[in-house]
């Protein structure tokens, strides 16, 4: 059986989609060929890198990218991880199926944090929710 090509799409490809790509590569290497992109490019979030490292997944070598920078355009699934991406997801050729799995945005939640440790609480919660979603792939894609 060939791997499922999954694109995790978010607004800025800085945090949630990067986490999903990292977990898919680490936890589902024989099942999923993972990619991530953003509607725009915000750069890789250093706190996302930090909490993923805590979970044993190194995403520091991943790069924030837009859809135009992806090496391919044909996917089995396009998974939007935020409402903005779901509303602005462009057309993709081929047979790509779409799924929306919304997760809170850690940078937005952490805006009022008094310390990095307080901010990391939000990043860790969302990281763990994304891990649970990825662990259940591909079943978690079916509605």
Summarize the SSE layout with pairings.
Blueprint: E1 4-10, H1 16-27, E2 32-38, H2 46-54, E3 77-80, H3 83-88, E4 97-100, H4 106-109, H5 116-135
Parallel strand pairs: 1-2, 1-3, 3-4
Helix pairs in contact: 1-5, 2-5
GO biological process, one term: response to arsenic-containing substance
InterPro entries: Ptyr_pPase, Ptyr_pPase_sf
Organism: Alkalidesulfovibrio alkalitolerans DSM 16529
Largest sheet: 4 strands, parallel
The sequence of SSEs as H and E is: EHEHEHEHH
Give the number of helices: 5
Return Rg in Å.
14 Å
Q: What is the fold named in CATH at topology level?
A: Rossmann fold
Residues in β-strands, percent:
15-25%
Q: Percent of residues in helical segments? A: 25-40%
Overall geometry comes to globular
The CATH architecture is 3-Layer(aba) Sandwich
* Overall structural domain count: 1
Any idea what the CATH superfamily is called? Response regulator
Tell me the structural class: alpha/beta
Main sheet: strand order: 2-1-3-4
In the predicted model, the low-confidence regions spanning at least 5 consecutive residues are: none
Distance between the termini: 22 Å
How many individual β-strands?
4
Given this structure, which CATH class is correct? Alpha Beta
- The residue-averaged pLDDT reads 90
Protein name: Phosphotyrosine protein phosphatase I superfamily
Keywords: Arsenical resistance
InterPro entries: Ptyr_pPase, Ptyr_pPase_sf
Domain Phosphotyrosine protein phosphatase I: 4-140
């Amino acid at each position: 059986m060939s791997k499922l090509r999954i694109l995790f799409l978010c607004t800025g490809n800085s945090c949630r989609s990067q986490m999903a790509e990292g977990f898919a590569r680490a936890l589902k290497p024989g099942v999923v060929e993972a990619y991530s992109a953003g509607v725009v490019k915000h750069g890789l979030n250093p706190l996302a890198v930090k909490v993923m490292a805590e979970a044993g997944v190194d995403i520091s070598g991943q790069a924030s990218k837009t859809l135009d920078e992806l090496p391919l355009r044909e996917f089995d699934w396009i998974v939007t991880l935020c409402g903005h991406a779901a509303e602005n997801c462009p057309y993709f050729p081929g047979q790509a199926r779409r799924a929306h799995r919304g997760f809170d945005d850690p940078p937005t939640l952490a805006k009022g944090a008094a310390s990095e440790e307080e901010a990391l609480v939000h990043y860790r919660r969302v990281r763990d929710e994304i891990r649970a979603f990825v662990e259940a792939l591909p079943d978690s894609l079916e509605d």
